[in-house]
Amino acid sequence: MAARLHVNIDHVATLRNVRGTPYPDPVRAAEVCLAAGADGITAHLREDRRHIVDADVDRLRATLKGHTFNLEMAATDEMVAIATRVGPDVVTLVPERREERTTEGGLDVLAGGDALARRVAQLRAAKIKVSLFIAADDEQVRVSKAIGVEQIELHTGVYAHAFDDEPRRVAELKRIASAAHLGHGLGLEVAAGHGLTLANVPELVRNREIVELNIGHAMIADAIFMSMAGAVKAMREAIQRGGTS
After folding, report:
1. Averaged over 19-35, what is the pLDDT?
2. 3-state class (DSSP) for residue 136
3. Distance CA 151, CA 141 (A)
4. Bridge partners, 4 (sequence order)
5. How many Cβ atoms sit within 10 Å of the Cβ of residue 113?
6. Helix/strand/coil (H/E/C) assignment for every residue in the chain
7. For 169-210, what is each residue's pLDDT tens digit?
């Protein structure tokens, strides 16, 4: 079975917020993506609200009934309270620094300690599936399992940046494969995301233990030239090519 495709619609909101207009509407983008064959929608509610804002989260939850809504967020009390109120299908806990352009690196689960474990438990008690966005590191995978999450999302940024450097790309794919295999063996669902494009997705999804992709920036960029629906269809075709090779 081909990996699921979850489209991150953050940068539709980025474009909207640049001009302070009500358009383009990220909720409408989510509807178009689902109609074109996406399996779910991802949105990151940042602490500084630089793209997705609280009203978007409420509207996405109301609109995406029957479809997977994955809310990315920092592991803070404020964000846990929002998630437990809104009730997304999945919460992905990610590292967050205000000065970064996008999420850089994986969440340090080891350093998160009891505070992270407590927030995971709060989300699980609210019947929300919890995923951790982590580096492809065996110890991070093991600790993720130990604190009770159901899914890990492996950070693929290094792989994406190394795509044109074959030795580095091959080495990074092996590292991702090792972490995915360990996670799968521990009973975790394995997702992947960051820096993924039409060019680099097929090779990644040859690994059948990766069952979900979260892709945003590249798909919004592709949509400029091929429409939002076209970008979804093109990415689904790329996933299919990799999954059958």
Report:
1. 98
2. coil
3. 10
4. 212
5. 12
6. CCCEEEEECHHHHHHHHHHCCCCCCHHHHHHHHHHCCCCEEEEECCCCCCCCCHHHHHHHHHHCCCCEEEEEECCCHHHHHHHHHHCCCEEEECCCCCCCCCCCCCCCHHHHHHHHHHHHHHHHHCCCEEEEEECCCHHHHHHHHHCCCCEEEEECHHHHHCCCCHHHHHHHHHHHHHHHHHHHHCCCEEEEECCCCCCCHHHHCCCCCCCEEEECHHHHHHHHHHCHHHHHHHHHHHHHHHHHC
7. 999 999 999 999 999 999 999 999 999 999 999 999 999 999
Q: 110-150: per-residue pLDDT in tens?
A: 999 999 999 999 999 999 999 999 999 999 999 999 999 99
pTM for the model stands at 0.95
The three-class DSSP label of residue 40 is strand
Q: How far is CA 224 from CA 20, 148, 205, in A?
A: 20, 40, 25
Average pLDDT for the chain: 95
Q: What span, in angstroms and rounded, lies between the C-alpha atoms of 141 and 110?
A: 10
Helix 228-244 vs helix 26-35: crossing angle, to nearest 10? 50
Q: Which residues are catalytic?
A: 44, 72, 194
Residue 89 to residue 229: CA distance in whole angstroms: 23
Element (H, E) at 191: strand 189-193
